[in-house]
């Protein structure tokens, strides 16, 4: 039986995070949904899986709340549940940056639809910036995109301070997995005086779903934070697996060689 996976987020003021958490926990349990939902004063962020009916009920319930009436979700389908259990957690931020000036409820960059993305990033005057972490970039990114080589998203402001200049980099186009990190990243760049900031609407996943492979400027696969590990065009599972020792995504045909060299695996064996 096919399993429906949905990813969603919404930046909006939440005055009652604990109450919202309990409501979502009860509903997800009733629908036998697994995955993770984060609830914070700045909004919600979730990737969950379940029956198609259960997922539809969860989304309908959320959209019945005026705060989430325009909630956008992205669905994909797999043969087996990609999550082992359900987690609904309270957090300080749904995307950790620790920079209050990066507030997507006040300002964000210009959204660019997937079908318009190629033309934008082909412009030589546009700096194309991957806002994801190094291990994600390593298995796939857009052609000629800048890799900030961050270990966590919290390091992004340091990268900006050391490498970008609002007077020189006047047009910046950024992207991330599903769009949520770019909301904060674009808000941060705008707060630092960058005049034109764009971000890929719906993220890489929407691009892979929308743009035909023969027209694509994407190279490789897109890392996702679940047991599917990575996705390719059509939002279908790719060829990567997860190293159980170090947690790094590894190409399936490289798994044996990686296992032989992984220091954490050898440390655990001692």
CATH class division of the largest domain: Alpha Beta
Uncertain residue segments: 265-270
The separation of the N and C termini measures 42 Å
pLDDT average, as an integer?
Answer: 89
Number of strands: 16
Q: Helix- and strand-based class?
A: alpha/beta
Count of individual helical segments: 9
* Shape, principal axes of CA atoms: globular
Strand order of the largest sheet: 4-1-3-2-5
Fraction of residues in helices?
25-40%
- Please give the CATH architecture of the largest domain: 3-Layer(aba) Sandwich
The major sheet is characterized as: 5 strands, mixed
Descriptive keywords:
270 residues; alpha/beta; Alpha-Beta Plaits; Oxidized Rhodanese, domain 1; 2 domains; five-stranded mixed beta sheet; four-stranded parallel beta sheet; 16 strands; 30% helix; disordered C terminus; TrhO; Rhodanese-like_dom
How are the elements arranged and paired?
Elements: E1 3-11, H1 17-30, E2 34-40, E3 43-50, H2 52-63, E4 72-78, E5 86-90, E6 110-112, H3 114-121, E7 127-130, H4 134-137, E8 140-142, H5 156-163, E9 171-175, H6 180-191, E10 196-200, H7 203-210, E11 218-220, E12 222-223, E13 230-232, E14 236-237, E15 240-242, E16 249-251, H8 255-261, H9 263-269
Parallel strand pairs: 2-5, 6-10, 7-9, 9-10
Antiparallel strand pairs: 1-3, 1-4, 2-3, 8-11, 12-13, 13-14, 15-16
């Amino acid at each position: 039986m096919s399993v429906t996976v949905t990813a969603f987020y919404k930046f909006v003021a939440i005055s009652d995070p604990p109450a919202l958490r309990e409501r979502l926990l009860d509903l997800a349990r009733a629908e036998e949904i697994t995955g993770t939902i984060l609830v914070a004063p700045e909004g919600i962020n979730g990737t969950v899986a379940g029956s198609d009916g259960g997922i539809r009920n969860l989304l309908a319930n959320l959209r019945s709340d005026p705060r989430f009436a325009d909630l956008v979700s992205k669905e994909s389908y797999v043969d087996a549940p990609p999550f082992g259990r359900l987690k609904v957690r309270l957090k300080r931020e749904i995307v950790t940056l620790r920079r209050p000036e990066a507030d997507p409820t006040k300002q964000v960059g210009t959204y660019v639809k997937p079908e318009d993305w190629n033309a934008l990033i082909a412009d030589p005057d546009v700096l194309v910036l991957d806002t994801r972490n190094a291990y994600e970039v390593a298995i796939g990114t857009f052609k000629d995109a800048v890799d900030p080589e961050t270990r966590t998203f919290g390091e992004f402001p340091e990268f900006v301070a050391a490498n970008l200049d609002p007077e020189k980099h006047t047009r910046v186009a950024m992207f991330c997995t599903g769009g949520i990190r770019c909301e904060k990243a674009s808000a941060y760049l705008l707060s630092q005086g960058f005049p034109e900031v764009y971000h890929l609407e719906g993220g890489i996943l929407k691009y892979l779903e929308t743009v035909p492979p023969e027209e694509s400027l994407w190279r490789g696969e897109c890392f996702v934070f679940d047991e599917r590990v990575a996705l390719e065009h059509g939002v279908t599972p790719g060829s990567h697996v997860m190293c159980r020792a170090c947690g790094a995504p590894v190409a399936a045909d490289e798994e044996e060689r990686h296992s032989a060299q992984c220091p954490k695996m050898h440390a655990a064996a001692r």
